[in-house]
Every structure is written in structure tokens, then in C-alpha cells.
Amino acid sequence: MSGIVLGTPVNEMINTFNYDTYVILDDYHNLEDSTTIDSIISYLLENMPKKPHLIICSHSELSMPLAKLKANDEVFQITMDDLCFTKDEICALFTTIYSLKLGEDEIDWLLKNSEGWPTYLSLILQTYGTKQDREKCFFKKIQSEYKKFAENIFDYSVQEVFKNEPPEYQKFLIDCSLLDYLNPDICQAVTGIDNCQQIIEEIFKRNAFIFALPDGNYRLHSLFQDFLKSIFQNEDRKK
Any idea where the MalT-like winged helix domain is (predicted)? Predict the structure, then answer.
């Protein structure tokens, strides 16, 4: 699609915005073939005036070129790491917003098991009843019913993350779920696949609950890893 054909009507439209306007593209990752759309979006980003603002929400890393825009400080990117709650933020969420007084050990437990994932923390508050119930037996209840509660997390993992992965990536994740960290050589020994480095990097770009470590290896989010382990164990029992 040429810039002339696309540019004239699009520029006429966007130049009509003389006030701050926000256009939101949600679930961008659901596009089966985003090549054409990427080209259109890239053109818009290069040629839009300052008033319109484009917000793209995606589970996976965008494939369109953004280096120039980033260099000019015209792109603000929020990653999964940015959204994760810190220990202080978890404390503020439960104490300041929900008026729940948690001890240091309880906050540490929440941080360890959630790894700061906002959905996990939100589900805890939704699952365990009223403010009075939470204050009375909040922590004992969540610890005693952790496995049952975790099923809600697994459901989310299945629907929003795992099912969106290609079958070969699903199998790779299941086969490597028992590993403490994902190293290409170790993953190759486990799976027999030669291009493990490429697969790991691609999964990382797709934001499938995987973290890059300082030493060059990767690690699965503990909740997602627990979910994958449960599939591995079920499949192992069927053999």
C-alpha cells in the first residue's frame, strides 16, 4: 500500500484533530497476519501530528519498527515488568486501599507467590469475601485454600496465554516446566530440539509469563510454571 494512496485520506482525517485525542487498539496480538496493519500503523506513527495519541495494547511484542520513534522519545512502552507490583506497592494495595493490616511475612508470601502479578492480587481480594472476612481470617484462609485458589489463576493462564501459543511452543513449555530456568543447551537435552534459543526468545517476545535473567537465561513465572507442571504430570500419568 503506497504512502500516496494511504496518506491523503488518512492525513485529512488526523489533521482534523485540533485537541488531544486518544485512539486505543486493544488485543492487537489477536491479528492473525498483522503485516498490512503494521504498515498502516507505522505510517500513522511517522506522520501523525502531536494531538492524536495512539495506544496499542498487546500480549506480545510489536513487530513494527519503533527504533526511530524511541530515539526521539515519541514512544512510551509499558512492559509486564513495569506492571508487576513491588513489595511496597503490595503493602499499599492491601493496607491503604483495602485497609487490611498484613505482617511482613504475609506480604513476603504474597510477593513470592504472585511475583507482583496484578491479576493474582486482584483475584485474592475478589475471592476472599468481605472486608470483615478478610480481616478475620484472610491469611489463614488463603494459605489453606491455596491450591483451590490457584485453579482460578490456571484458568486465566490457559485462556489468555497458553492457548494462544502455537502447539510446538506449548509442548516445549510443558517439557521444560520442571527446569528451574530455561537454558538453550539444557532445554535441547530435555526436548531434543535444536533451535531452543530461537524458541525461548520468541516465547519471551510473546510475553508468555517468562522473564529474562541477568546471566542470559530465562525463567518461567512461578504461577505459569505450576500450571505447566500440572499438565506434565497429568500427561505422565496417562503414559
Answer: 159-237
